[in-house]
Amino acid sequence: MLPFPFYLSLKYLRPKRSFLSVVTIISVAGVLLGVAILVIVLSVMTGFDNMWREKILSFKPHLTVTASCGAVADEQEVCRTLENLPGVRGAAAVVETLVLMEKGGRLMAPVVLGVSPDAAAKVSRIPDYIWEGTFDLDGEKTVIGCDLAARLGASVGDKLLVYSPRNVVAKDEIYLPEELTVSGIFNLGMRDYDGNFALTSLESGRELLGMSEGAHAVYVMTDDPFRFDRFAALAQSALGAGYDVRTWREVDSVMFNALSHEKTMMFVLLVFITIVAIFCVTNTLIVVTVQKTSEIGLLKALGFSRRSIMAAFVLHGWLQCLAGTAAGIGAGLAVLHNLRRIVRFLLVFNVEVFPKSIYGLSEIPWSTSFGEIARISVFVMGFCTLASVIPAWRAARLDPVEALRHE
Question: Rg for the chain (alpha carbons), in Å?
Answer without folding.
Answer: 32
